[in-house]
Input
Amino acid sequence: MKTEHIDRPAILAEMNAAFYRYEQALITNDTAVLDELFWHDPRTVRYGAGENLYGIDAIRAFRTARSSQGLDRELVNTTITTFGDDMAVASTEFRREGSDKTGRQQQTWVKMASGWKIVAAHVSLMV
Output
């Protein structure tokens, strides 16, 4: 891929908007938006801090059962890179109040006909 196709300003702006929309939905436990932003497919994968979820149905079940308490967090070292017009990788670290652990989150996003969707995600905590 030619470097001029990486981080095109308009595509990067779209992806930043999608990423921060996801972040707002995450900390407010807006499960409808979280569901909207994941690819609705059995091949979607989300590796969490304590669970491995395969497919949109497993991801939905996890979101529905999860507590909505203590979701606020501070993001640090966020990096979003777009490749062409329809693929991006978002990486960030996060910290929650009252915890000395650093969390890490990485997502692969693909622009579908219905908009930007997370097709793979990984969340972990550094020990």
User: Anything to note?
Assistant: The domain at 3-125 is CATH 3.10.450.50 (Nuclear Transport Factor 2; Chain: A,). The chain has a mean pLDDT of 95. The longest helix spans residues 9-28. The chain has one domain: 3-125.
